[in-house]
Write a structure and sequence with these properties.
single chain, alpha+beta, Rossmann fold, eight-stranded mixed beta sheet, 11 helices
């Protein structure tokens, strides 16, 4: 698995790391613009030797004398292996050693904008076969799905089908009762938000007059719904389930053709798993994926690198977080030096989402609307006898009381403090 990353002169930080990663779950939190997605993109490059589009951009102040660098440590089949990459200003590319990746492993990247990427050592190992002294044009660098592209077949430049797509695969698996379908049913069950909303495949149906294909459906409480017409959140879950099954089974089929043994490791990169998901789903997704991975343990071990803005995602991990194999990291911006850092944090069971919101991980002073927070802070200054420091309109007891009544609910926990301190009778 990916053991360590260290970045120099790339992204928002002059130096980041070294970051020692856990063997199972690695969670990254922090404000927008501090480099969380870039970190996942670089992790993808460290594992696969390929970039997702444009390579990482060097910092403007970097130069050839001290070029931007990416150092990584990955755990191969026998021992950890280090790799050093640096940015070549002449070629405008990241240069590293040539040849095969040091760690053959399945890498699946779920991106926040709906794109998905897969790197499979059996199918994408590498296009440039310098270890053999030849080019291998039949193996792409990786497989990338644009938003919505995973539904239908993807063809290579020479017309060969690389992926038949969810619609055809699902229906074929279901009609033939294949091992892929059995696994898909189990994964969908694990990813369901609860017993009342289980994701159960329905019967395939024809949907459109001008499309003779059968479409897979979900048997929902209010009837069967074609997966392509389900909600955005359900479509995201369905695609995650399909791609997990497709990547794993596809790898096993590919190594069968190569007469090789399947790889035993899977790295899942996941950017903002909360995207499109109701809180019911946000608090179940990562525990469900961990359970799916646990179910594959005899055949494949999984490592997760997850970036999130959602306190429910972190709260959902409290029952399963194990400090021996899981870690929480926080991107932060120093307000004085304006420097970005990435630090490991202790994972504390905080009990609810409010406590996560006001923790160092998310940094809110209060879990309220901004105006309500300002009114409560003005009230607290008034109770400390420094109400004259408040902004105009919030300096007297009556002004503050009127603002609190407009912004706080009747059952807000701040009311008892305010009423006792100001000698008011609670009329709630």
């Amino acid at each position: 698995m990916l053991k360590r990353l260290e970045l120099h002169q790339v992204g928002p930080a002059a130096k980041l790391g070294p970051i020692d990663l856990a063997e199972r779950m690695n969670i990254f939190a922090g404000d927008n613009g501090l480099g969380k997605t870039l970190f996942l993109d670089i992790a993808w490059w460290a594992l696969t030797g390929t970039w997702l589009g444009r390579p990482a951009w060097p910092r403007p102040e970097s130069n050839a004398a001290a070029p931007p660098a990416i150092d990584s440590v990955v755990e191969s089949k026998t021992k950890p292996s280090t790799a050093h990459g640096h940015f070549d200003f002449k070629t405008q590319e990241w240069a590293t050693r040539t040849g095969r990746p040091v760690m053959p492993v399945l890498v699946l990247y779920f991106r926040s904008d709906g794109r998905f990427s897969l790197w499979d050592p059996a199918q994408h190992y590498w296009r440039r076969r310098k270890d053999l002294g030849v080019e291998d044009p039949n193996r792409p660098d990786a497989l990338h799905f644009a938003p919505g592209e995973a539904w239908d077949a993807i063809k290579s430049v020479d017309g060969k089908i690389i992926c038949r797509g969810l619609i055809e695969d699902w229906v074929t698996w279901q009609q033939t009762k294949s091992p892929e379908y059995e696994l898909l049913v189990r994964v969908l069950a694990e990813l369901s938000p609860g017993p009342a909303e289980r994701l159960v495949p329905g019967e395939p149906v024809r949907v459109w007059l001008d499309d003779v294909r059968l479409y897979p459906t979900l048997a929902l409480p209010y009837g069967q719904v074609p997966v392509t017409l389900a909600s955005a959140g359900m479509q995201r879950i369905v695609l995650i389930a399909y791609l997990l099954v497709w990547a794993w089974r596809g790898h096993r089929n590919a190594v069968g053709l190569l007469r090789q043994e399947p790889e035993k490791r899977l790295v899942i990169l996941f950017d903002e798993p909360e995207t499109h998901l109701h809180p019911q789903w946000q608090r179940r997704l990562l525990p469900a994926l961990l359970k799916v991975a646990e179910g594959l343990r005899d055949e494949m071990a999984a490592q997760f690198l997850v970036c999130t803005h959602a306190p429910l995602v972190l709260a959902s991990l409290e029952p399963t977080f194990d400090a021996a194999k899981d870690r929480l990291f926080h991107f932060q911006l120093d307000p004085t030096t304006q420097e970005v850092s990435l630090e490991q944090q202790g994972f504390t069971q905080r009990g609810d989402v409010v406590n996560w919101l006001v923790s160092d991980t998310f940094g809110l002073r209060q879990a309220r609307a901004l105006e309500a927070e300002q009114a409560v802070e003005a009230a607290e200054r008034f109770m400390r006898g420094v109400g004259d420091q408040n902004p105009a309109g919030l300096r007297t007891q009556d002004e503050i009381d009127a603002r609190l009544k407009r912004l706080l609910g009747d059952r807000d926990p701040f009311w008892p403090r305010w009423h006792v301190r100001t000698g008011q009778v609670d009329q709630a």
